[in-house]
């Protein structure tokens, strides 16, 4: 049997040897890409220092806060801001931001809070209606007077039912006996 398999394999090898493998030719040619261009360096600008400040002082809403900040243009920033807390104290924050990170120092100044000036107008008195409340007497209602409706017996007689004339025998089904495994 082994000899037959060897002969068969030799015949198949000889048959395949006379055919050459087809040359691969793609249906399309791949696009030619050029090398990526080097990015232009990011332009450098001259340092632009800045400085700003603002403050808000609103006696009607008790919104009192301020801020001031300045920069040297090289990434170093110094500033301060303050605000009036609800308890009447003032919170002051001095901060710096530079190559070491952001650093803030918070201070709380007690009792130097803002006190709103007294209003220049007199508040209106509490509202009191000028009329007296109406006097109502409870309405007098009598108990409803109605009588239950009178129904008479139905005008038709009840149908009479009788058993059917034919009868059916029980089905001839017998269940299979139960086998316990």
Short key terms for the protein model shown above:
181 residues, mainly beta, five-stranded antiparallel β-sheet, 1 helix, flat, structural constituent of cuticle, signal, Cuticle protein, Insect_Cuticle_Struc_Prot, cuticle
SSE topology:
Elements: H1 2-17, E1 50-58, E2 63-71, E3 77-84, E4 90-98, E5 101-109
Antiparallel strand pairs: 1-2, 2-3, 3-4, 4-5
Describe the overall structure:
By secondary structure, the protein is mostly beta strands. Helix content is 9%, strand content 24%. It is built from one helix and five strands. The protein has a five-stranded antiparallel β-sheet with strand order 1-2-3-4-5, with no helix packed on it. A hairpin with a 5-residue loop joins strand 2 and strand 3 (77-84). The longest helix has 16 residues, at 2-17. The radius of gyration is 53 Å and the shape is flat. The two termini are 50 Å apart. The model has no long low-confidence stretch (mean pLDDT 78). GO terms for molecular function: structural constituent of cuticle. InterPro entries: CHIT_BIND_RR_consensus, Insect_cuticle, Insect_Cuticle_Struc_Prot. This is Cuticle protein.
């Amino acid at each position: 049997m082994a000899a037959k398999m060897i002969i068969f394999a030799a015949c198949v090898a000889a048959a395949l040897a006379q055919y050459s493998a087809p040359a691969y030719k793609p249906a399309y040619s791949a696009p030619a890409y050029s090398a990526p261009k080097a990015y232009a360096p990011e332009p450098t600008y001259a340092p632009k220092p800045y400085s700003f400040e603002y403050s808000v002082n609103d006696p009607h809403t008790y919104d009192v806060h301020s801020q001031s900040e300045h920069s040297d243009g090289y990434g170093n920033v110094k500033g301060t801001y303050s605000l009036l807390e609800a308890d009447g104290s003032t919170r002051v924050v001095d901060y710096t931001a530079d190559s070491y990170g952001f650093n803030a120092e918070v201070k709380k100044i007690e009792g130097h809070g803002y006190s709103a000036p007294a209003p220049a107008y007199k508040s209106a008195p509490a509202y009191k209606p000028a009329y007296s409340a109406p006097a109502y007497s409870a309405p007098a209602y009598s108990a409803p007077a109605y009588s239950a409706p009178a129904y008479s017996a139905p005008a038709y007689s009840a149908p009479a039912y009788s058993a059917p004339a034919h009868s059916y025998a029980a089905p001839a089904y017998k269940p299979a006996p139960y086998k316990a495994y």
